[in-house]
Amino acid sequence: MGPLVDEAAVKDGQSIYQNRKKKEGKPLLVRKADGDGYFVGPAIFTDVNPGSRIAQEEIFGPVVAIMRATDIDEALSIANGVSYALTGGNIFQES
Length: 95
Description:
With about 100 residues, the protein is α+β, with helices and mostly antiparallel strands. The protein has helices at about 5-25, 55, 70-80, and strands at about 25-30, 45, 65.
């Protein structure tokens, strides 16, 4: 994983992990990055509300927000309900 652009981006990434993880989703994986440079460890959050900041804001860092949809129509509605879509993806699994 490459570095972030500057120290401000690193601080924003750390803020996401520290302040949002318990409020906006359940942390499945949160890792710290070691070493010099502008690095932030990866994080994966589950049970994220589609309207939460972590789901709606563009985050330039290794963060994955997992949201649940009941069907393909709801999944498309969630995907189309954000302003940013640089790195969006979905997996549809029938229950």
